[in-house]
Amino acid sequence: MHALHQTIHAFFNPHSYTLAIPDVWAGFQVNLKMMVIAEALVLVLALAIALVRGLPGPTAKPLRALAIAYTDFFRGTPIIVVSFLIGFGLPGLQLGFVSNRSVLTYGVITLTLVYTAYVTEVYRAGIESVHASQRAAARSLGLSYAQSMRYVVIPQAVRRVIPPLLNDFIGLQKDTAIVSVIGVSEAALTAQQFSNRNGDFPSYVVAAVFFILITIPLARFTDHLVQERERKERAQAF
Amino acid sequence: MSTNGNGPFVEVRGVSKWFGDLQVLDKIDLEVGEHNVVCLIGASGSGKSTLLRCMNLLERVEEGDITVDGVCLTKEKVDVNALRRKIGIVFQAYNLFPHMTVLQNVMLAPRKASGVSRDEAEQRAMTLLCRIGLEAKAGEYPDRLSGGQQQRVAIVRALAMEPRLMLLDEITSALDPQLVADVLNLVRELAESGMTMILATHEMGFAREVADKVCFLDAGRILEEGPPHQIFSEPREPRTRQFLARVLEAERLS
């Protein structure tokens, strides 16, 4: 009975919540900032790398190889290892500009590098899913390779990959907590510090709720888009 | 106006092509005069589509030469994009751009490939859409149109580039029978207006009516060619006779 009471108290002490919420919220704003910046960078960089990977012709071979090496490396390396490489490695280089950044910047760089690799593959799948006859139609009208990509292939590809892309963004939003390992004072780290000070766990519950509050709407929105598409495709089949 | 004087508008000389080990074109020779309509007939897999796709370099020619309007396209350093602006192609599956409206489909290439102004491109596109009676559909997306309407839009999308040559690749094969006539009427109009055209087709009656010359392809070779009355009424080659007999039988049964 006493043990149960202690457990309940350790998780649900109302007083702790009143203290933890503002504390963890301050940390969570850092997560939000990292999400927004990293997601914007990922959207642009991943498309660029996907396009490089799809470049035709033998002259583009070294570029294609570079793009493949990039995605292989960052998809294959645990994000926590990338965090250490960037967060401790770059300052260790003592290279002025690259070594004097804030931990927040290193956090954003880490997230961007890793998720760009994932999203590159998403874009690539989308680009490949556009039927070859669409390219043939565009090229045979006299559009250049770049124009046919810009006006015909990419708009169709992007529309198709929005759901998987949003799924990766849900992952990214959660993984903003991982860069706490290099000392970014975000929600998970603030919660841990709070918990250490108070000897209880409400701060973790608060952190969990904050993350859930932003990932669940995004997950539902993604489901909605998938359903819309299925509905539309069924309608077309008749 | 032809830039090569009195020679043929399209000249195919000894063209061969392989897909891996399979030879799909075998020393094809073909001449098409300006304002002429040539129909390619033959079974599926006889090389009709591949030959058309070689003529605007959608497929690489591995042997032989193709000359269009005095430009040899099989030479190196040909400006592929400039060449394709002069040659329209229409495919069996229409291949309209599904994310663009009908009007945008027709305007895209004139605007982006030829640098025509938005206003002029729109005007040209609307004139063409009026011609096929689809001006009311200008703002619709292709999936709201019937197959026949989509194929006619695909034809005017190619015409919007003001091509000197049109290649039509079995453009009625994917259509319901009752939609075929509208598309063929449009092609007939084009033929009457003097457009140089090469058609791969299974519509024998139509070929007989519009063609200046009919070529029967078999296993990547032009086995027999001549004016339509000769090919359809007195074919010389047994393979041609066999093919035509089978097509007529299929038409009777359908």
Architecture blueprint of SSEs:
The complex is a heterodimer of chains A (238) and B (254).
Chain A: H1 2-12, H2 14-53, H3 61-76, H4 79-92, H5 103-129, H6 132-140, H7 145-175, H8 187-198, H9 202-237
Helix pairs in contact in A: 2-3, 2-5, 2-8, 2-9, 3-5, 4-5, 5-7, 6-7, 7-9, 8-9
Chain B: E1 10-19, E2 22-32, E3 37-41, H1 48-55, E4 63-68, E5 71-72, H2 80-86, E6 87-90, H3 102-112, H4 118-131, H5 147-159, E7 165-169, H6 177-192, E8 196-200, H7 204-210, E9 213-218, E10 221-226, H8 228-233, H9 238-253
Parallel strand pairs in B: 3-8, 3-9, 6-7, 7-8
Antiparallel strand pairs in B: 1-2, 1-4, 4-5, 9-10
Helix pairs in contact in B: 3-4, 3-5, 5-6
Task: Walk me through what this model shows.
The complex is a heterodimer of chains A (238) and B (254). By secondary structure, chain A is mostly helical. Chain A has a single domain, classed as MetI-like fold, CATH 1.10.3720. Chain A has helices at residues 2-12, 14-53, 61-76, 79-92, 103-129, 132-140, 145-175, 187-198, 202-237. In chain A, helix 6 (132-140) packs antiparallel against helix 7 (145-175). Chain A is flat and about 80 Å long. The N and C termini of chain A lie far apart (64 Å). The model of chain A has no long low-confidence stretch (mean pLDDT 92). Chain B has 254 residues and is an alpha/beta fold. In chain B, strand 4 and strand 5 form a beta hairpin. In chain B, the strands form two sheets. In chain B, strands 6-7-8-3-9-10 form a six-stranded mixed beta sheet, sandwiched between helices. In chain B, strands 2-1-4-5 form a four-stranded antiparallel beta sheet, with helices on one face. The radius of gyration of chain B is 18 Å and the shape is globular. Chain B has a domain at 10-96 and 165-253: Rossmann fold (3-Layer(aba) Sandwich), CATH 3.40.50. Chain B is built from nine helices and ten strands. Classes of the chains: A mainly alpha (238), B alpha/beta (254). Chain A binds chain B through residues 133-134, 136-144, 147, 151-152, 155-156, 159, 236, and chain B through 56, 58, 81-82, 84-85, 87-89, 91, 93, 95-99, 108-109, 112-114, 143, 157-158, 161.
